[in-house]
Amino acid sequence: MRERRFGRLGWTVGEVGYGMWGIAGGEGGWTGADDATGDAALDEAVGLGCDYFDTAWIYGRGESERMLGRLVRRHPGRRLRIATKPPPKDLAWPSTRDSKLADVYPPDHLWEYLHRSLEGLGTPSVDLFQFHVWEDSWAHDPTWQDTVVEMRERGLIKGVGISVNRWEPWNVLETLRTGLIDAVQVIYNVFDQAPEDELFPACRELDVAVVARVPFDEGTLTGTLTHDTRWPEGDWRNTYFVPENLGPSVDRAERLKRILPEGMTLPELALRFILHNPDVSTVIPGMRKPAHVHANIAVSDAEPLSEALVAELRTHRWDRRPTEWSQ
């Protein structure tokens, strides 16, 4: 797998990382997960050169972190980067302009969930500790700043990151200028190209790593959804792909299929578009089965897309605003 530099932290990571939301299942997540298949997929990824794993306590209420901890212990000879996230105390995704830092990430809550994560992972530290929601109005509040500085000084975290709210890539720019943020995780894909406007230039200037999440638009860019797609009760996708989202999403994916080069799948095209951008440090597709791992990691060996195709893909940009269902 090709490698990229992870911003000012100076790490070298595989350009295709591993997003671990769907792999653990659990309340409020994705249905159909099982540990045996998930463990096999994780092991396969390590074998193929994947070394960046993104999790969060809320993924399976700690189960995703426990799975990652077991993976690390099964591969003691490999340097696997662990990135996790504490949940907001109010359990509200995303935060809003009315959210108060004291209600979302007070220091005692950050410390509690750092220790919960370390216990679940079974490791003495995490490589990247990421706020799971964020408001740029919190940028200069000393409560979060002092907390992450102390965590770093005690060797419990190596870097600090922010997972930017959906469709709000601007909502972190002032915080980056505090000098305390090493990485941003942001939705970036064929549809969601807005991070290129302001966020990526700021990250380039400040040497902040970029983790591209939701490369398949929660499934739209796999090309498998239809207007009639439904999921089992309790699956998070039912709350995201409401009729006003599912219909336009499927229509846009169908238009993309018309320009697919011969022999290329839509997921491959989606990942290669993201990796065409040198500002991206790593992309983290969800991979619940070994077959997903093989297909997604193989993209790293492909040649860059032609500039003509990239230019055509840019016309599929879809600027959206957060709504009650976008989460």
UniProtKB/TrEMBL annotation:
Gene3D superfamilies: NADP-dependent oxidoreductase domain. It comes from the Bacteria. It holds the Pfam family Aldo_ket_red. Residues 16-315 form the NADP-dependent oxidoreductase domain. InterPro entries: AKR2_Oxidoreductase, NAD(P)_OxRdtase_dom_sf, NADP_OxRdtase_dom. PANTHER family: D-THREO-ALDOSE 1-DEHYDROGENASE (PTHR43312), NADP-DEPENDENT OXIDOREDUCTASE DOMAIN-CONTAINING PROTEIN (PTHR43312:SF1). This is Aldo/keto reductase. It comes from Herbidospora solisilvae.
